[in-house]
Design goal:
By secondary structure, the chain is of the alpha+beta class. It has helices at 2-5, 11-21, 34-38, 75-80, 146-149; strands spanning 28-30, 44-50, 58-65, 86-90, 98-103, 108-117, 130-132, 150-153, 157-163, 166-167, 173-174. It starts with a helix and ends with a strand.
């Protein structure tokens, strides 16, 4: 049996070299803070978007203070109180992988929300919009847990992946 594979052994290193030499596919960076992530200037958070239902509407990446009381609070109230809040928006590209970038005021702990605003309205639509957080697990039928949204940002660009979830009948919000 070993003799049958012997002629292919010299080709193996060449095949491995071709696979390892392939350049990674460039990911499109979106949002008003995209230049910070592209240039590697921090502190910023790059969110790789996964599980997108379709390419309609707009993506919203929101940064909140790492406080359970402030998580998902009205943005005008947070800003009026001098607390951290930042929102960056962008239309998803027609195809391909993409990420969104949000600058953070300083390295530290924050909460993130990614929303797929499919309707184009400023109010969240439970029936059509998608939502996601950096932490694992599904949202289900209850309010998202603060622990799912927490991310620690370093002094450079911190990379996180968020898988979007959409309403899936009686099961509530789940990945597609």
């Amino acid at each position: 049996m070993l003799i049958a594979f012997r002629p292919f052994l010299p080709l193996l290193p060449l095949g491995l070299m071709l696979v390892s030499a392939a350049a990674p596919m460039p990911i499109e960076m979106l949002g008003s803070d995209a230049t910070a992530c592209r240039a590697g200037r921090g502190p910023a958070i790059q969110v790789n978007v996964a599980g997108l239902k379709d390419r309609q509407g707009e993506m919203w990446l929101e940064l909140y203070p790492a406080s359970e009381d402030d998580f998902l609070r009205d943005d005008t109230a947070l800003v009026a109180e001098g607390k951290t809040f930042r929102r960056t928006r962008a239309a998803p590209p027609a195809s391909g992988d993409f990420a969104m970038c949000v600058s953070v005021p300083r390295p530290g702990r924050y909460a993130l929300l990614l929303r797929h605003n499919r309707t184009g309205k400023d109010k969240f639509s439970i029936w059509s919009d998608g939502v996601g957080f950096p932490g694992a697990g599904t949202i289900g039928r209850s309010r998202p847990k603060f622990a799912q949204a927490v991310v620690d940002a370093g002094s450079g660009v911190t990379v996180s992946t968020i898988r979007l979830q959409y309403l899936r009948g009686l099961r509530g919000f789940q990945p597609l």
